[in-house]
Amino acid sequence: MIEVRGLNLSLGNFRIGNLNLTVKEGAFNVLLGPTGAGKTLILESIVGLRRIPGGQILIGEEEVQHLPPEKRGISYVPQDLALFPHLTVEKNLAFGLRASPKNFFKEGSHLARLVETLKIEHLLQRYPQGLSGGEKQRVALGRALAPSPRLLLLDEPLAALDPALKNEIQQLLISLHRSLGFTALHVTHDLDEAYLLGGRINVLIGGRLEQSGQREEVFLHPRTLDVARFLGLRNLFPGRVLKTEGIEGSMTIGLWGRKIVIPPGHAARSVSTGEEVILYLRPEEVMILRPGKPVKESLRGNIFGGEIERILDRGTHRWVLFRPSGLDVHLEVNLPNYVFRNLGLQEGQEIQVAMRRESFWVIPTK
Question: Which CATH architecture has domain 228-281?
């Protein structure tokens, strides 16, 4: 287990105060947050490139915050990769290893297997300036993994890549992690990248760790409004708690003049009667009803009529903007293309939509 406890750090007017972060061993952990959130500062503190005035960094049971970087057993891949231009790929890979050079690439050795997995055997005698962007990425990963580090830190190494190359390196990272089982902490502001790579997601906003958890938990069940907004979640509507059924029971939320009954376990924390909250509804969970078709019992309590104001073609799906009658709000709906075609929807059309109560998630505002 790798832990950061009570980290305190200042840079100009920016401050990280009393931050606690747990990096799950053997997992691909992601530190996700907007630009300026403090992600790189945390990585530099863990690896030892930045002194910390307060806090502890533990690997296993050992405190390492007082050790120099080379004594921490951590490998670091910065955004610019920092390959040594005067060394061949072979010597870049071998840098930092203390074995005899003739044993570095011995058949069956860890480094030989790594070179084979990365598919860079043909590059060993070349210099970094003669490599493509993808080749440099592979070499940087190989150099970082060569010493079998206790922790691999990755500081947005894919940020400058074009989409095709980024996808290639993402798949490589997944493959490497599955085969080698290393512990990683990957920094990114890219939501798709975080979801694809991260087994465990840590959301950092403004120097504060807002939420940590498994990928689905964080993306589907944000604990704060700041997290929901950063994740780009839509359909966030203010409501008020009208009634609660005990600490772990259901709750009734007032929304758009209706009473929405939310089942147990669908709130970021327990809420109290009278409390202001935010109701989150995933756009793909909104159902458009077909005229004349029977409606399931689970949908009958939350049906709204209104007008389609806009339709956008997003390639893989259609984005529909729906306005409930008599309300100054908009509800976004995502429809697979085949569903959209079958419904024959048009802008200006009057329709009815329905939502299952299990589709709502309650986010406290305080």
Answer: Roll (2.30)
CA dist., res. 203 & res. 153, Å (int): 16
How big is the chain, counted in residues? 366
Report pLDDT digits (tens) over 92-146: 998 877 644 556 666 557 888 889 889 999 999 999 999 999 999 999 999 999 9
CA 296, CA 188: separation in Å to the nearest integer?
A: 42
CA 150 to chain centre: 22
Sequence-ordered alpha helix ranges (H) in 147-271: 163-180, 191-197, 215-220, 225-230
CATH hierarchy code of domain 2-221? 3.40.50.300
Q: Is the pTM of this model over 0.85?
A: yes
Per the structure block, which two tokens stand in for 154? 């990755």
Ranges assigned E (strand) in the chain: 2-11, 14-23, 28-32, 54-59, 62-63, 74-77, 151-155, 184-188, 200-205, 208-214, 236-244, 251-255, 258-262, 276-281, 287-288, 303-313, 317-324, 331-336, 350-354, 360-364
Largest separation between any pair of C-alpha atoms in the chain:
79
The answer to whether the CB of 254 falls within 8 A of the CB of 279 is no
- Find tokens 């327990």 and name the residue: 270
| Structure-token pair, residue 155 | 């500081």
Listed by start position, the domains of the chain span 2-221, 228-281
Q: How far apart are CA 118 and CA 110, in angstroms?
A: 12
Q: Report the C-alpha gap between 149 and 161 in whole angstroms.
A: 25
